[in-house]
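Consider the following assembly input.
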Amino acid sequence: MYFTFIKTFALEEIIIIKIGGNIIDDEQALSKFLHDFSAINKQKILIHGGGKSATDLSKQLNIETKQIDGRRITDEKTLDVVTMVYAGLVNKKIIAKLQAHHCNALGLTGADANFIEAHKRNHATIDFGFVGDIDKVNPEIIFDLLHKNITPVIAPLTHNKHGNLLNTNADTIASSVAVELSKTKKVTFFYCFEKNGLLNNLHDDYSIIEHVNTTEIEQLKEKQIITNGMIPKIDNIANALNNGVEKVILCNAHNVLSIVNENAKFGTTFTLK
Amino acid sequence: MYFTFIKTFALEEIIIIKIGGNIIDDEQALSKFLHDFSAINKQKILIHGGGKSATDLSKQLNIETKQIDGRRITDEKTLDVVTMVYAGLVNKKIIAKLQAHHCNALGLTGADANFIEAHKRNHATIDFGFVGDIDKVNPEIIFDLLHKNITPVIAPLTHNKHGNLLNTNADTIASSVAVELSKTKKVTFFYCFEKNGLLNNLHDDYSIIEHVNTTEIEQLKEKQIITNGMIPKIDNIANALNNGVEKVILCNAHNVLSIVNENAKFGTTFTLK
């Protein structure tokens, strides 16, 4: 009876991990991370960004890369580039490497199995092109795959149900997927980046703030501890917590395995107030 | 009782369709084909080649394209190109378009869910690079997806289980998948190309040979009715029939829908002797 409870509980937990350019663009770091990821002894989902390969390929093809507020302006040619890089090169290399570690992975975009529906961004003054804002995450495919011990690996593209792929920020996808899955599962969302956590002092890698709740976020913004590029990340984290995700851990990708499997204390844990 | 039988029978049949460059490279033809494909009222799988986009992208990136006997020599840079084009651009555009037609499609390479295991080609004199010869098709993912009314769309890449993707001929993948699925299902394999079928006279598009059995293939080769580029295609067809596939139909992609849904007679039907 006791063991049954433990087992059921374990099955109900899902680990969602978002990795970004600092891992994807560094072959050795990616290799180490994928080794670790495969060893995570819980149901898990990986969401990856694109890294700098899309910018590199655009450059090689003489396609100008335009960004406004950190969002890539996606004309038709740029959409082709990000589709090739995110869904092709990055996603499939990750899949092949995970298979080598006996992690039975399968790559998805938001178009596959109608996983993530989105619409082209409406903006009063800026035409973002083929950039998608999420309308709906349909989680059935994720549950079906996890049930068969298949690990979903998600590339940052969605679709509009009218035949167009759309370029969607990987952080936003990760947060939206975490929220949707948290409706029926216990979700722990690992938000990996280049630092060891939220730092009290940007120049001291060990000044990690161990725990932050959502009411403290505004104070940390006022104190300039959360600034610049961190703001959208933290807003995504707050959004996830305000919408059902139990715990978000902001940490370095190389600490994820020991946090999950050994309950080690690394990174910054975010919870609701 | 009668209706139950019909229904069970229908569920057991799988339609496998291979399309090539003549459809993939022609936006209008592809659009019409995907509309038709979505309307096929049976369980179905699509396998696509790469078309000329990989060659075009290689050219833009100043990567030399080498082919021997119609097989692309795949060095590391070329592997990246075909991964981007086949698994990214071509596959995901097809998925998004099928979703617009309410066909719930999902893209796969041979690495996803360990669908197709392969090894790097061993050849006495030629180094083909990252070209894969198939060892094993693991059909579970296909059955799982079809069972959930999800339509698999397969890009021509496999993997070696040691972390490498491999470039594998789409015709060979189609034939190997058809053979594997035919072990437990009734498989009809549509091999689509630019002609209306096997022609008695290459200069007369209507001189279609309606039916060919495997014993007649050698005679047709001797008579020079099967020549040049047709030989590997027909060998793939013979291989499928000799290994359990009930019927292969060689036809133009725009006739597939009426052949399947209306039992129309188009193309050349190949069966065992």
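Chain A touches chain B at residues 57, 60-61, 80, 83-89, 91-93, 95-97, 99-100, 104-109, 111-114, 140-141, 144, 148, 150, 157, 159, 161-165 (CB under 8 Å). Ask yourself how this observation constrains the way the partners meet.
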